[in-house]
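Researcher: Sequence recovery benchmark, item below. Answer with residues only.
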């Protein structure tokens, strides 16, 4: 192994260690494309939760999401979300840790939970349906730097 490589300056993990690591990440995270596909297909057993403020929710949110700000999760989760559902939380985007804070609250309540990586930012940038507080739904063209210009997924 050469140290002339920035990538290989620290050797890759052993395959079994990598398998455990990536399986653990996928147990805790999902992406906007997978969430959009499940919502479009009416897949059972998931509830998408927008953890942002009321003002943010009104500005735009994932169509079909439940609005439950992080500070209200402990008090309101049982009334809004079936106990056996996998909760998928999101906040603004990758520069915000609000989704992690919300996921922690759901985990404290004993709920299965995943974070939607990329958050609302990548949902909108990839051109998935955005609903506003007044119920209007719009789809923007995907940002070609973050999503395929044609088709609806990266097919990964």
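Model:
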């Amino acid at each position: 192994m050469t140290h002339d490589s920035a990538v290989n300056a620290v050797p890759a993990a052993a395959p079994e260690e990598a398998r455990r690591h990536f399986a653990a990440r996928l147990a805790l995270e999902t992406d906007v494309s997978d969430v959009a596909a499940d919502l479009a297909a009416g897949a059972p057993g998931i509830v998408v939760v927008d953890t942002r403020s009321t003002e943010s929710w009104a500005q735009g949110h994932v169509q079909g999401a439940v609005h439950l700000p992080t500070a209200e999760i402990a008090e309101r989760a049982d009334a809004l979300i079936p106990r056996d559902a996998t909760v998928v939380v999101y906040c603004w985007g990758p520069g915000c840790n609000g989704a992690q804070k919300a996921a922690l609250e759901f985990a404290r309540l004993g709920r299965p939970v995943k974070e939607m990586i990329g958050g609302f930012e990548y949902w909108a940038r990839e051109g998935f349906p955005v609903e506003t507080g007044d119920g209007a739904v719009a789809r923007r063209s995907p940002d070609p730097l973050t999503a395929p210009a044609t088709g609806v997924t990266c097919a990964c």
